[in-house]
Structure prediction request, 257 residues.
Amino acid sequence: MKITEIAQLLKAEISTPAYCKDINIKSACSADLMSDVMAFSKENAMLLTGLVNPQVIRTAEMMDIKVVVFVRGKKPNQGMIDLAEEKGIALLETDYPLFVASGKLYDVGINGHGE
Amino acid sequence: MGNVVVRDYMIPANDFTVAGEASSSVRKILTQLGVTPHAVKRTSIAMYEAEINAVIHGHGGKAHVEIDENKIFIQISDEGPGIADLELAMQEGYSTAPDSIREMGFGAGMGLSNIKKHSDLLKIDTEINRGTTVNITVFFNK
Prediction:
């Protein structure tokens, strides 16, 4: 699933203008605890989270996560957007809560099994 | 053959905006050297967790990294309070991190066990009120 399709489905704004248009997302993980993302996450290229701080971007980088969706209307600051662009990570913002956003993606075939 | 890449980094105390810079730099070097993505990821997770630990618990510290064609050795040392009960600290879920750290998405007590899981050799030297040194080795062919 392309980033633009994900943005459409989640009524999300893409906050990193220079995002990668070719990336194809097949699986994702949802967590507010970055320790758990590193401990339990499989080869997922997308993270949904309600946590907003620079360590989310760092964790995404270490885990090869290419897309981060901030849920519940959380907004990354400019420092986080700059860091994400530097690392080639796309940031999305949606008003949906974590459960609903995850469900909408699961419904259209995004799984949690890793690539 | 026999080329060793050596890097040293400072890990600033309590600065969450730059925490992870050292791990990020090492990750870039490994990728440029053509190390497999699997080994890069294992190294990244192990080093990042140790770096975060130094920021959270150790009042910052330093990282020393040696990379040769077969492996990476990472030594992260701090002059923090030390770990009172290492065996207990290694258990998943055990944490002494304050709420301010938990709000950052860390402090779940997964750090040390996560480092162990993603490294091939792990040696931790710690002394109360003197500090902690974490020695991590990851072999690239595993």
